[in-house]
Amino acid sequence: MVSQRIRDYELMMVISPESTDEEVAALSQRISGFVTDRGGSIYRDDHWGLRRLAYPIQRFQEGNYVLKQFSVDPETVVALGRTLNAAEQVLRHLMIKIEAPPPPPPPPPAPEPQAVAAEAEAETEPEPEAEEAPVSTEESSPEEVAPDDEAPEPEPNQA
Question: Alpha carbon 4 to chain centroid distance?
Answer without folding.
Answer: 34
